[in-house]
Design goal:
Bound molecules: NADP nicotinamide-adenine-dinucleotide phosphate
Structural class: alpha/beta
Distance between the termini: 11 Å
Strand content: 25-35%
Helix content: 25-40%
Number of helices: 10
Number of strands: 15
Shape: globular
Radius of gyration: 20 Å
Length: 320
Amino acid sequence: MKAIRVHEFGGPEVLKLEDVATPKPSAGEVLVRIHAAGVNPYDTYMRAGAYAVKPSLPYTPGSDGAGVVEAVGDGVKKVRRDDRVYTARTLTGAYAEYALALEEQVHPLPAKIDFKQGAGIWVPYGTAYHALCHSAKAHPSETTLVHGASGGVGTAALQIARAMGLRVFGTAGTPNGLEIAKREGAHQVFDHRKAGYQEEILQATGTRGVDIILEMLANVNLSHDTKLLANNGRVVVIGNRGEVTINPRELMSRRASIRAFTLWAITPTEEAEIHAGLFAGLENGTLRPVVGKVLPLAEASRAHKEILEPGSAGKIVLTI
Ligand code: NAP
């Protein structure tokens, strides 16, 4: 089968399209014919060797795939051959024609979600759901700022927050991104490249502040975020690419808190809740993964360059 292989950590050019043996499922495993694989920012940190999770070389990247079950190992009960599924992690990597996964890593893909959208479920929607429901413990009628609303996690968060009955603000850095944020559920949008936009957000709350901030770039925004919070406000750090200085007094005076997580460290109970919640939303149409760019598997290195550039528009997906 064709697969992207990484033999050494480095820039996007280390992603090579190669022929490798098609894996076979052992007991408890599922072989999925992958039709589309989602590209996530963490795939690039891992490829560079700069991530907390460091795979042994060589490896095939990708946790988020969507396709059809090709074969199942002994004892597998959850899915059978020809079922449409999405993956939430795999054993052998989703940037490939076939991926081996544990039975618990494959999940049914509702009929109205196509494979390209299915490749944008696990990391973006799992993260957004965990941030809002488990970390922030959001309640209907609260105000949430999705700080970075035009990308994979941001568009997912807008849809979930809107369906939960929150008042939703979103930021993006381009006119297209702002348009997407509005379309996907933001009641109001703000340009995070415009000087003074934080004051506009505060004014939009009547100076009360927002209850929840889902933060995609904490090293740039965290010191301002603490000043945008209402009493008992929560910042959930989702993305961060460096260090930042904050004034804890801003938190003290608001009884506010900063929370953070990585999706790798959630509990099995949380993960089960996430998939149940996502399946319901995908099935009833409230959750609709936004596919912004589709590239062939052979162009994985281009996808890794473009995912880190400004101007997000939903997910970048590789088709296979
Ligand atoms: P993405 O699709 O590349 O989107 C990036 C988002 O960040 C876009 O909305 C972008 O907006 C926005 N952004 C850029 N500059 C910003 C600024 N100054 N202030 C606020 N937002 C800004 O990436 P993603 O998949 O949504 O992931 C977002 C971040 O979360 C990444 O850093 C990723 O590594 C991290 N993440 C963490 C976890 C976890 O487990 N903690 C899970 C998933 C993702 P424009 O392009 O419109 O400027």
